[in-house]
Amino acid sequence: MAEPTPADPVEYVAVVDEPGPGAPEVETFTATSEADLEAQIDELEAEGTVVAVEPEQPVAALVDADPRSAEQWGLTNSAFSTAWTNGFDGTGVRIAILDTGVQAAHEDLAGKVVQGIDYYAGSSGDPAGDSDYGRVDANGHGTHVAGIAAAGDNAVGGLGGAPGATIVPVRVLGAGGSGSSSDVSSGIIWAADPTKGNADVINLSLGGSSCSSSQQAAVDYAESQGVVVVAAAGNDDVNVPIYPAGFEGEVIAVGSTTSANAKSSFSNYGTPFVDIGAPGSAILSSYKDSPGQPPNGAYLVKSGTSMATPYTAAAVALLLQHCPAITNGSAAGGSVADKVLATLQATASPEIAGLGASLVQAGALTTVTCPT
Cα separation of 114 and 188, whole Å? Predict the structure, then answer.
């Protein structure tokens, strides 16, 4: 842990589990000395159990730029239309998008984005304020991710993997696509809290190199609430975990594939880190307002494990609609995340050479015998 000095104060993040029911709280504070740090931790311990304390850490959206247009091949390769034909479109499932915000007025997302929360504005003074509750996006990344997951079946633009699902926007990244571990941790806890975000699935198309104890505590809370967390495996073409995807057993780590069902050149890889593959190269989706495109009608092709992750979140939404007992407590044995991951992997195909995982298959998820 970094040692603060008066000349070089350090910002810290703590997760505090206060007495009584309810979600843990994420606290941030600045310390100017080791004694100051210890004193502030003592104050927090007077409020409740301090689950984690660490220096603030950076996180960023995980995109690999790609100018090629390939339309929506991912829906075909992962057989989403089969799931729709089987009667499953994600209706009743809430997907939290922790990202740069979501442009709620976009033609492909209109009426699908409920009130969320903006943690980034509160911590940074960013001009896109928290009065918009996460429903603005100055970067475009979150809007792109949301469209892949759940763009509506409305005869305009594209189509999301779970077009009937509800989008819960949680803004934790700014216009530059970066943010802090404390905002991500706060966002995970808020999204998983049944009295607040009430999410069934949390999409994290972001990450950083450090193993954050505050994010670990937040993911632990999400798991305790039966919320499925999916996260991008990273775009460095290495067999090295990034976080939060690297929290093995609690987060489903998603690698990226191409239209030829091959490993995307940029995707991180390796067993046991990468749990599942999903389409992530040259993906067309909704985007923020852009020059030359109509207001609330912009689209862009982007690549990255950031794009593969919402395809997986959509597939999870279809599975949860098909097998609601996974989350309502009537299915026994193992966590919700364990059951969902086992089902994803059992139905995935083909195996993607060099990725360490197979391709998610949404259609098969809607005919599988539900886990018990």
Answer: 17
pLDDT in tens, 288-330: 999 999 999 999 999 999 999 999 999 999 999 999 988 765 4
Q: How far is CA 331 from CA 128, 249, 326, 338, in A?
A: 42, 18, 6, 12
Size (the chain), residues = 372
Q: How many CB atoms lie within 10 A of CB 232?
A: 32
Note if 141 is an active site residue: yes
Radius of gyration of the chain (CA): 20
Give one DSSP letter per residue of 46-112, joined into a string: HHSEEEEEEE--EEEE--B------TTHHHHHTTHHHHHHTT-S-TT-EEEEEES---TTSTTTTTT
Q: How far apart are CA 161 and CA 141, in angstroms?
A: 17
Element (H, E) at 232: strand 228-232
- pLDDT at residue 206 tops 50: yes
CATH of domain 58-365: 3.40.50.200
Q: How far apart are CA 350 and CA 368, in angstroms?
A: 17
99 is catalytic: yes
**Candidate list 64, 99, 132, 193, residue with the active-site label:** 99
- For the chain, give the percent of residues with pLDDT over 90: 73
Q: Is 33 assigned a catalytic role?
A: no
Residue 80: name the closest of 162, 135, 151 by CA: 162
